[in-house]
Amino acid sequence: MWTVELSFSDAPERLAARPAHRQSLTALHGAGKVRQAGPYADDSGALIVLDLPSREEVDAVLAADPYFTTPGVTVVRVREWVPFLG
What we know:
The structure is a single chain. The protein has one domain: 2-Layer Sandwich (Alpha-Beta Plaits), CATH 3.30.70.1060. The chain is about 35% helix and about 30% strand. The chain contains 2 helices and 4 strands; from the N terminus they run βαββαβ. The protein is globular.
């Protein structure tokens, strides 16, 4: 599994791009690729948990969604995660 941590600014482009991004994440969730996703309570960023076998597949997901390169959205960190619960 992988975590993708995002940070947000107040750029208006981010909010305009968000509905399509959420649709993309919903489709990936339906396909079993996204386990969880959502913004932090203060809307300073978000966390996405991906159930993918390789960093290459994570990078492909990020490349396929223009939201990740939208002004106001920064990919802060992508890390492999090995949960022992859940």
